[in-house]
Amino acid sequence: MTADRYAVAGNPVEHSRSPLIHSLFAQATGQSVDYGRLLCPLDAFKPTLLAFAAGGAKGCNVTVPFKFEAFEMAARRSPRAELAQAANTLRFDAQNGADGGWLADNTDGVGLVRDITVHAGVPLEGQRVLLLGAGGASAGVLGPLIEARPAEIVMANRTIEKAQAIVDRHAAWAAQHGVKLSARSLAEPGEAFDVFINGTAASLSGSGIPVGPQVLRPGTLALDMMYGPAAQTFLQWARDHGAIARDGLGMLVEQAAEAFYIWRGVRPDTKPVLAHMRQLVDQPKTDGAH
Predict the structure, then answer these.
(1) What digits encode the pLDDT tens for the residues 8-33?
(2) Cα 90–Cα 105–Cα 50 angle in degrees, nearest 5
(3) How far is CA 142 from CA 85, 100, 156, 163, in A?
(4) N or C end of the chain: smaller count of CB under 10 Å?
């Protein structure tokens, strides 16, 4: 039997751990899956993806910098993708027939929430959360974070107008869940949060931590969405200021499991896969999400 083809699409993608993660999921669940990497030119994401789908592929994950473009390409969007206006998961359903075309979803947020609450064992309900950045990563996680019912979420960004636009889009969702939601500048993000999530590209660029240590308190969970060497500066900074430091590897595995479920209808056990990936990532080099 020919395996169904999937890939992680982005630029760059050579560092991606997603092929190994999905291979482990496939082995554990008995699914016939061939998952690879799809390098997309920065100016040719759409034609590259259309050619991949036309070749018989069933779907893909999408990483930087194409999550907004992926959302636009789909005929149907999940509610969480609609909130984010960005997609990291596409399922190539047929354009004709009852299914009505490609499905776009965003699994980043549910992956982040599961990692925080299950793997890190930190409850989000009633907590004060600082979410740094207003790009595709932060936009993708805000809806599920709100759904976890923290007391407050602050989205801080260099350009406050960009953060405010995302906050405005999520305002009704936040009100529905009793969450205080606001946008602030990096200069005045607030102080002593229970959970601090770095969704910026600062770790990849090596530009340092864009906020001061006043955002932390002793015991704050400080999580960088990056993992491996790219996250080390952030993790050390967090530890130096009394926080509990965590990288984005658990988020990566959990969002992949959600994508696997969307494609295959089977939800893999993430704990052994995360343990395996942790052993690998703590040894050789890697960087970035997906």
Answers:
(1) 999 999 989 999 999 999 999 999 99
(2) 20
(3) 11, 28, 12, 11
(4) N
Q: Which two tokens stand for residue 286?
A: 């890697």
Q: For strand 59-62 and strand 89-91, is the pairing parallel, antiparallel, or unpaired?
A: antiparallel
CA separation for the pair 40, 31 (Å, rounded): 27
Which residue carries 């995302």 as its tokens? Answer: 166
d(CA 246, CA 196): 10
Structure tokens at 45: 């994401």
What single letter denotes the amino acid at residue 215?
A: V
Per-residue model confidence (pLDDT) at position 136: 85
Quote the pLDDT of residue 206: 60
**Distance of alpha carbon 65 from alpha carbon 81, whole angstroms:** 16
Before 213, cis peptide (omega within 30)?
Answer: no
Q: How far is CA 198 from CA 112, 168, 224, in A?
A: 12, 20, 5
Q: Partners of 8 in the beta sheet?
A: 37, 61
Would you please indicate which residues are annotated as catalytic (active-site) residues?
Answer: 67
With a cut of 50, list the residues of the chain below it in pLDDT: 285-288
DSSP the chain: -PPEEEEEEESS-TT--HHHHHHHHHHHHT--EEEEEEE--TT-HHHHHHHHHHTT--EEEE-TT-HHHHHHH-SEE-HHHHHHT--SEEE---SSSTT-S-EEE--HHHHHHHIIIIIS----TT-EEEEE--SHHHHHHHHHHHHT--SEEEEEESSHHHHHHHHHHTHHHHHHTT-EEEEEETTS--S--SEEEE-SSHHHHT---SS-GGG--TT-EEEES--GGGGHHHHHHHHHTT-EEE-SHHHHHHHHHHHHHHHHS----HHHHHHHHHHHHTSS---S--
Strand order in the sheet with 59-62: 33-39, 4-10, 59-62, 89-91, 103-105, 76-77
